[in-house]
Amino acid sequence: MTVIEVQHPLVKHKIGLMREADISTKKFRELTGEVGRLLAYEATADFPLEKTTIECWSGPTEVDQIAGRKVTVVPILRAGLGMMDGVLDMIPNAKISVVGLARDHETLQPVHYFERFVGQLDERTALIVDPMLATGGSMIATIDLLKKRGCKDIRALVLVAAPEGVAALTAAHPDVRCWTAAIDSHLNQQGYIIPGLGDAGDKIFGTK
Ligand code: PRP
Ligand code: URA
C-alpha cells in the first residue's frame, strides 16, 4: 500500500473542520499546519534510533536519538507552504527544498516555474508537502525531479487525496509512500476533489 490514510482521531476531526464552506483563512491556515504536524509524526515513525550517552542531572545516562538522518522538507508552491511550518515544528533541523508548480486549469497538467533544492539529496529523506493530491500530476512531477537528483527516500504528506491521484501515484512511483488525512470520493469535471476542501492555495493565502 503506497498511500496510507491516517486514522488517528485528531487527524479525522481536524480534516472534518477544514471542510466547512465558510471557514476563515486564519482557521484554515492553522488547521493546515496542525494536520501537517500530525502527518509528519506518522511519516517518521520508522526513523531508526541510536543510543548516545549524555550528562543528565543524575549523572551520565544513555538516551535515544535519531540516527544521523538528514531531512529535506519539500513544499510544492504555493499551497505546500501552508504545511511546511507544521512539519518543521517536528523536525526543526530539516533543510528546505522548494518546487513551484501550477496546474493548468484547462489541461490539469502541472506547469513548472521554480525549483531550488538543497545539496546531498542522495543522503536525505525528502518529505514532500502539498495539501491536495488530485490527478497526482504535481506530486509525480516533484518526485521525478527529486529522483533525477539522486534522492532515494521520498515520502509525501497530503491533507486530502482523490482515488484518481492515488492510482496515478501508485503506478508512477510504487516505492514512494504517501500519508494522507483522507481519501475522498472522486474528482469533478474541473479536477477538484469531491467533497474535498476547495482550492487549498486560495484558502491558505486568502486569494479569491
Ligand atoms: C494545487 C495543489 C496541488 C495541485 C494538485 O495547486 O496544491 O499542488 O493543485 O493537483 P494535481 O494532483 O491534479 O496536480 P495549484 O496548481 O492550484 O497551485 P497553488 O498551490 O499555487 O494554488
Ligand atoms: N487543487 C486544489 O486546491 N483543490 C483540489 O480539489 C484540486 C486541486
How would you describe this protein?
This protein is of the alpha/beta class and 208 residues long. The protein has a single domain, classed as Rossmann fold, CATH 3.40.50. It contains six helices and 13 strands. The strands form three sheets. Strands 1, 4, 5, 6, 7, 8, 9, 10 and 11 form a nine-stranded mixed β-sheet that branches. A two-stranded antiparallel sheet has the order 2-3. Helix 1 packs antiparallel against helix 2 and helix 2 crosses helix 3. The chain is globular, with a radius of gyration of 18 Å. The termini are far apart. The model has no long low-confidence stretch (mean pLDDT 97). 1-O-pyrophosphono-5-O-phosphono-alpha-D-ribofuranose binds next to strand 4, strand 6, strand 9, helix 4 and helix 6.
Q: Give the CA-based shape.
A: globular
% residues in beta strands: 25-35%
Counted by DSSP, the helix tally is 6
Main sheet, how many strands, which sense, barrel?
A: 9 strands, mixed
| CATH topology-level name | Rossmann fold
Helix share bin: 25-40%
- Quote the distance from N terminus to C terminus: 37 Å
State the total count of DSSP E strands: 13
- Compute the number of structural domains: 1
Oligomer status: single chain
Name the structural class. Answer: alpha/beta
What is the overall pLDDT average?
Answer: 97
List bound small molecules.
Answer: 1-O-pyrophosphono-5-O-phosphono-alpha-D-ribofuranose, uracil
CATH architecture: 3-Layer(aba) Sandwich
Instruction: Supply Rg.
Output: 18 Å
The first-level CATH class is given as: Alpha Beta
Q: Provide the low-confidence segments as ranges.
A: none
Order of helices and strands: EHHEEEHEEEEEHEHEEEH
